[in-house]
Amino acid sequence: KQNRAILIMNKESDRLTYLINDILDLSKLEAGKIKLNIELVNLEECIDNAASLEDVKKKNISFRKMIPKNMPLIEADKGKITQVFTNLISNAAKFTKPKGKIMVVLSNKEKDDFVVVKVKDTGIGIAKKHIPNLFNKFYQVESHLRRNVGGTGLGLPIVKEIITLHKGEISVKSKIKQGTSIIFKLPKVKEKKDEEEKERK
Question: Virtual CA dihedral for 84, 68, 126, 91, nearest 10 degrees?
Answer without folding.
Answer: -30
